[in-house]
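User: Can you fold this complex?
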Amino acid sequence: MFDPAFKLRSPIDESLCLKAARVLREGGIVAFATETVYGLGADAFNEAAVRRVFRVKGRPENHPLIVHLADAAMIGDWASHVPHAAARLAERFWPGPLTLILRKASRVPEVVTGGQQSVGLRVPAHPMALAMLRALGSGIAGPSANRFGKVSPTTAAHVRQDLGEEVDFILDGGPCSVGVESTIVSVLDETPVILRPGGVTREAIEEALGCSVPVVHSGEVRASGLLSSHYAPCASVIVSNPDEITDRAAELRAQGHHVRILTAHEVAPHALFASLRRADGVGVDYILAPAPDEAGLGLAVADRLSKAAAARDVAGPQE
Ligand code: TXA
Ligand code: MG
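Assistant: Here's the predicted assembly.
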């Protein structure tokens, strides 16, 4: 049987991971594949490199970055306190598309956390990201490798389109298998809450914790993924009941607009961001997306689509 991991274990890919780690150690910034989306990373302890990540991304410096780690056993080096629920989620879902928000250990630089006393931690599941992290032997601070407010990249080509020559190296690990960002769970308070639906389903988190875990849309937490204008393509996105989508498209076309209807397959999690980029690439006025069923990963898709749709109602990314 074909083993998709085989290629990733080849010596050539390992050498790319070592190169990425070397670039980071020397103070550079590296875009890298993860199973969710591509990240734009810096050595978490190199303040100048972390600041460059904010600049290249065009992200305000008070928006915290996730710290990526090689191993769940490192959690205690980065968090000052690991509640039972956090340990349980880490054990169950790491490596994987889950980010935990915890109280930060004192050694975590404030430039990484946007001045907050909490830190987002994640052990990604992509073998090349893990090899790079192991070779660096430290944490890699980084957001998704897109310009602030735009759709996350799920291929190295997307990263090149967005950031071009501004990154020192791109660790190309192929298309991202999950395709939407990690689920962010805050375990700062007694009741864990989901701040951003993502690659681990709400159902799986609730099952692991044995309790209900609400999805909160709080303005108090500085998480740019929570901004209503995030994940914006250039075209206007309309989320439509699948039964009405062709009528809706006909109306818009009758008004002279260039319209693209996305299929159910194109809004599947692994395809969503590439589909939005593709539709944008041909210069349509409207992207019509069928409203997904909000069970499982559909919750993350619905979240990203509603943010993309909201983007045209406001001037741009709000701060
Ligand atoms: O899948 C992912 O999470 C990808 C890959 C590259 O790991 N990363 C990602 O990073 O999506 P970013 O920065 O684009 O989105 C992470 C979100 C941001 O909205 C950020 O504000 C929030 O996590 N975040 C990070 N640290 C936080 C903290 N201490 N408290 C609250 N929110 C935090
Ligand atoms: Mg992002």
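Residues 143-144, 152, 225 surround magnesium ion (ligand 2) (CB under 6 Å). Confidence is low (pLDDT under 50) at residues 1-7, 314-319.
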